[in-house]
Specification:
- It is a single chain.
- The protein is of the alpha/beta class and 303 residues long.
- The chain has helices at residues 26-30, 53-58, 62-72, 85-89, 92-107, 114-125, 138-150, 172-182, 202-210, 217-228, 243-247; strands at residues 13-19, 37-43, 79-82, 111-113, 129-134, 154-160, 189-192, 214-216.
- The chain has a single domain (13-247), classed as Rossmann fold (3-Layer(aba) Sandwich).
- The protein is built from eleven helices and eight strands.
- The protein starts with 12 loop residues before the first strand and ends in a 56-residue tail after the last helix.
Length: 303
């Protein structure tokens, strides 16, 4: 069969992504990307260190970024994104800006980071008081709060899992439990940190239940990278991506006051609940059990 009339593949825009060596959610990043954009991913070199402030510093060293950016430039991306939240907030606001400058110098390509994209996204939706959910330890979560404070963002509540490995295996049900525990008081939005924490399918559910915009690390990374090249990220009913969603149920109130009077809150859908819970006392497959029982959020680490 003669297929010469097809003329070859359509032109593609390219987004380069520098991810930590243990990043496991390539497919999740692709879900925000339209068909005429290709992602080009590279990873930082392996180091035998668990998720911690030390690891965040190691995977964000300028020498590491320089090598990764030069490798990506071989395929001529239009923008390069550093997809790691902790690696881009561990040095504070000044450290994040220095990372962007180092990447631009290495590749002469517009560059951004997850933490910088977060601040940009919060400004886009007009949020200055946010709740924070992380899979990190207390020290890493504290560092995120410090970074946000430097940027003029107040953390109104938070919840974290205390994990140092296998973060990509956390089920959606644990993310939902943490979100409910973290959103207290007057809150403009919720941020779910860590590019290795699955969030794509849970964002619409949480926006409907909490009635506020919900941002996640991978979402803001892809949104900012695509916007930098004049492309709209895709995703079902997410306030950051869809101005209509900001005026709908997800943004019906600007605080954690729950559903409007007389309107029952939506029941979380089973599709987002993850696999059935294992028998009592049995750890999740490949994942350390969370530091609190699912039915008792009062045992969350202290805020």
């Amino acid at each position: 069969m003669d297929v010469s009339f097809l003329g070859g593949p359509q032109p593609q825009l390219g987004v380069g992504v520098v991810a930590p060596f243990d990043f496991a959610l390539d497919r999740e990043l692709w879900r925000w990307v339209p068909d005429d954009v290709s992602l080009h991913l590279t990873r930082t070199p392996f180091v035998p260190v668990e998720v911690s402030l030390d690891l965040a510093r190691m995977v964000s060293e300028h020498e590491t970024l320089d090598a990764a950016v030069q490798a990506l430039c071989a395929v001529s991306p239009q923008v390069i994104s550093y997809a790691c939240t902790s690696g881009s907030f561990v040095g504070g606001v000044a450290g994040e800006r220095a990372m962007c400058a180092a990447m631009v110098q290495a590749g002469e390509v517009p560059s951004l980071t997850t933490s910088g994209a977060l601040i940009e996204a919060l400004r886009e939706i007009g949020a200055r008081r946010i709740a924070v959910v992380t899979p990190y330890t207390k020290s890493v979560t504290d560092s995120l709060e410090d970074y946000l404070g430097e940027a003029g963002i107040t953390v109104t509540g938070r919840a974290y899992l205390g994990l140092t490995r296998h973060i990509w295996k956390v089920p959606y049900r644990d993310v939902v439990d943490m979100a409910r525990a973290a959103v207290v008081g007057a809150t403009d939005a919720l941020f779910i940190s860590c590019t290795n924490l699955p969030t794509y399918d849970v964002i619409p559910q949480l926006e409907a239940e909490l009635r506020m915009p919900v941002l996640s690390a991978n979402q803001v990374t892809m949104w900012a990278a695509l916007r930098a090249i004049g492309v709209q990220a895709v995703g079902p009913y997410q306030a950051l991506l869809d101005p209509v969603a900001r005026r709908g149920p997800a943004a019906m109130t600007g605080s954690a006051g729950g559903p409007a009077e007389g309107v029952p809150g939506p029941t979380p859908e089973a599709a987002f609940a993850g696999p059935p819970a294992p028998p009592e006392g049995e750890p999740l497959d490949g994942l350390d059990p969370p530091p609190y029982p699912p039915e008792d959020t009062g045992g969350l680490p202290p805020v």
